[in-house]
Amino acid sequence: MSRPYDNTNIDQLQRDADDCLLTYGIAFHPKIITSIDGIYVETASGHRMMDFTSGQMSTLIGHGHPEVVNVVQIHAQHFDHLFSGMISPPVINLAKRLTSVAPPGLDKTFFLSTGGEGNEAATRPAKFFTRKFEIVGLAASWHGMTGASLGAQYHAGHSDYGLNMIGNLALPTPNSYHSIFRKGDGTYDWETELNYGCRRQCARSKRLSVKLQAELKRLQSRYGCIGNVRGRGLMAGVEIVSDRKTKASAPGVGATVSQKMDL
């Protein structure tokens, strides 16, 4: 695979980034990524890291997958971009494939570019269909950078922006480690079963999760700063604490660990 950025002036790029880019609320990673390969990303100095940014669902099959690259090249040549009021065979074919595997009732598709746009657009038919106008979100949620999406999530960084979209409500995020519900009475025991989706991929994720959880537990037994390990499938979390008894968070330790790992 070609590496077009190997000889890039990284110092100049960093200065340009500082001058020209706004962040998404937190600082950018200190190292600029110059190449990708499957599950790895690489910096200009040649440091390779496994990409654990699982929020980017479009890269779950790995960066630069040959089949994806080939399809992108073909469609960039024939249908790189159209006005949204026009449709083409690839759009229709993808919509048909999606609706064919979706549950009954989800028989229409609406294509957008980002998760924030998707959430923004989804609230409109939801309000229209239910005739209800309030949105309930979780306190530690992340839904995007658009107006309605920002209004449905709750962060300290919301200060000094004025009012969010009217009708947004926050619920405490479930957290088994720092739980505010110490003694359950059964009134909030809910479970949702999703019986559709990528079954083979989910089965593989389940197998790999056993190994991932075992290795994270091994690290927990070795390092006192790991207070809790939890997760499902390959979506795992490690709670960094200063004291396991009090469960006091240790953001400074977490930041140091992150820097050492170059995550």
UniProtKB/TrEMBL annotation:
Any Pfam family matching the protein: Aminotran_3
Gene3D superfamilies per the UniProt record, alphabetical: Aspartate Aminotransferase, domain 1 (3.90.1150.10), Type I PLP-dependent aspartate aminotransferase-like (Major domain) (3.40.640.10)
An MF annotation (GO) of this entry: transaminase activity
Family: Belongs to the class-III pyridoxal-phosphate-dependent aminotransferase family.
Record key words, sorted: Pyridoxal phosphate
Organism: Cochliobolus sativus (Common root rot and spot blotch fungus)
A single cellular component GO annotation: mitochondrion
Protein name per Swiss-Prot or TrEMBL: Aminotransferase class III
PANTHER family from the UniProt entry: ALANINE--GLYOXYLATE AMINOTRANSFERASE 2-LIKE, PTHR45688
Keyword Cytoplasm carried by entry: no
Listed InterPro entries: Aminotrans_3, PyrdxlP-dep_Trfase, PyrdxlP-dep_Trfase_major, PyrdxlP-dep_Trfase_small
Coiled coil ranges: none
